[in-house]
Design brief:
- The chain is an all-alpha fold.
- The chain has one domain: Orthogonal Bundle (434 Repressor (Amino-terminal Domain)).
- The protein contains six helices and no strands.
- α2 crosses α3.
- It is globular.
Length: 90
């Protein structure tokens, strides 16, 4: 696989981890919501396991973010966007 694709895969995995931590969710919680083991979930965040589009959508739903944003944004941008949306909704 080419270097650019590998970098994007790692970026998505990192975004998932950052948003999970921002929401104060544990890996165990995400794993339970996805119906997988904590070990399997950990491998997703470490980019050891390639995730399907279906799995990406499931993760995005649990994290309450758009799956496209997990791909196209940085974790920091996602957190900033969520913070702004939360303030706007309150």
């Amino acid at each position: 696989m080419n270097h650019t694709v590998e970098a994007k895969v790692r970026s998505v995995a990192s975004n998932i981890r950052k948003i999970r931590e921002y929401r104060d969710y544990t890996q165990d919680y995400l794993a339970m919501k996805l119906g997988i083991s904590q070990n399997a979930y950990s491998k997703i965040e470490l980019a050891y396991t390639r995730i399907t589009l279906e799995r990406l959508i499931q993760i995005a739903q649990v994290l309450e973010v758009d799956s496209v944003d997990l791909i196209n944004s940085s974790g920091e941008d996602l957190i900033r966007l969520h913070t702004i949306q939360t303030r706007h909704n309150n």
